[in-house]
Sequence to fold (660 residues):
Amino acid sequence: MSTVTANIETHPLDTYLRVDRLPHIWCPGCGLGTALSCFIRGLLKSGLDLDKVAVVSGIGCAGRVAGYIKLDSFHTTHGRAIPFATGLKLANPELEVVVFSGDGDLAAIGGNHLIHAGRRNLDMTVICVNNFNYGMTGGQLGPTTPLGARTTTSRLGNIENPFNISYLAAASGAVYVARWTTAQVRELERAITEALLKKGFSFVEVISPCPIYYGRMNRQSTGLEQMRYYRNSIVRHGTDPSEVGIDLDGQIIVGKFVDIDRPYLPRPPDGDDGSTT
Amino acid sequence: MSSRGHLEGKLFLSGDEASAEGAISAGCRFFAGYPITPATEIAERMSDRLPEVGGTYIQMEDELASMAAILGASCGGVKAMTATSGPGFSLMMENIGLGVMLETPCVVVNIQRAGPSTGLPTLTGQGDMMQARWGSHGCYSIIALAPNSPQDVYDLTIKAFNLSERYRVPVLVMSEAAIGHMYEKVVIPPVSEIETVDRRKPSVSPDEYLPFEPDADLIPPMANAGDGYRFHVTGLTHDERGYPAMNAEAQDKLIRRLVDKIEKNSNDIIELEEDGIDDAEVVVCSYGVSARVSVIAVERARSEGIRAGMIRLITVWPFPEDRIREIARQVKAFVVPEINYGQMVLEVERCAGNVAKTILVPHMGGTVHNPETILDAIKQAVK
Fold:
């Protein structure tokens, strides 16, 4: 066996992956591998006890993360990752519960659960990978598809207004909201660590390339082209989330938009509800 | 409110309230639900009672979420329940399937009302019996119980938890408005006299643990989240490791086991109540509130010299095929009263075959049968 192969087999994050399930199912140029490694690095930096971290995913490309990460992990039904995670956290509050799923899963079929978990300020971290379309089923229009974007179900261009999901999360009551693209891995890792350590409902939107389906239909047919576009994002911490909507070709605003404190569920036994900093 | 803990003694409770107390006696410490007539009182009582026993109540945004939440809670190691009625039961179906696939113990109470759709929200029905068996997509087996009084609701809710923990499957308590809103005496025994069952834990180290490797009884030991096993489970067809396996062989192996773990243990699961079967020429087969009404008809038939017997399905799923086949060989006919246009009767008919007649006494819902209509059917059966 060559040295090169041996090096590939001992990736530094292998300890935290179910390596017997690799190779993964994601397409060339997909951002989910980057999002997953940022999540693992951010998790390691948080110092949390990994035996007490549970990952819950819904259905879709991002939903497969639960299957690759070597933690207690639950691949549930389409849209229901958040309510499943709600039960898990409330029944067993010592767990740090992370929902890792996609924009279609969390903002369309699971949209009602997203806003209600935000309203409750449920102490969990949601990592929402936004690739602007339904990738698993072959690139259909989703709740985040920008106006004018072409997909396999909007071949002449999308005529529906998309959700600005960072704004949606903030409006619902999230106490931590950040958005980064997979071109900003250090910032994304840091945001994930902050979100994990934050008490209450934390939401990290990860803008991720989908060159095979979304990119191909929208003049960004390689992962590299999409990453170049994402590198051109504007970092603007503290921007009002209502102003960070994403246009088809416009610059994407990234940064930490919300970092506040208010009472959360489950209420801690010592009576400190997180309402004061 | 003072902390009452376990309520022992004679209580005057509705079926809904008895369901909540049965859950607490069984060790349920998590309830997620959404208000719906005629099951709302279960949620109300759980919201009062669970904090008194160190449990958690959460009102979810809908029944999809309620069902998902109890699965999550159970995976976190806590016995969990939800309660609903027809429309909510329909919304729970997808995640009941997830519970079957993940083999997650939990209890779903359906206080049935007459449907379809919004139907008669405040009035009784038994129209969800086949939905209980087949409502989620795909092929699976499930356990469902049908209580006929508030006391029975209490007892069967405990039994439902025990079966769910034993067989790692969602167990359905199929009650109805007529029982849920009925007030009667309910005797709650001391804690020491209540038998409870807890899921079998893994006996191997985390490195050796395979979440879906069954023991000889076809049931895999279950680790809870946070126990250090770092296991993975998925609603996809999976192998013993819990890893997706997208092929016909894995599907065959998994689905056979999910069905067989219930069907091959059906003798241990099934509970029936029988009266006057030995010399019977006609047997009324019923369940829930309809079984209570049937008893009156059977007694009248006996007083008129008709050799009538009664079998009450306490367990409706898995269906007691063997016993119905056995009885079919000695009787002329089965009479099946139910508050629908013929659901469980299809099972009775399947088992009775051409050996004994099967006569449906349907009722479309809104109230219970008049015993006279059942008596008429008994008379017709022996003609």
Notes: Residues 27-259 of chain A form a domain with the Rossmann fold fold (CATH 3.40.50.970). The two ends of chain A are 56 Å apart (CA to CA).
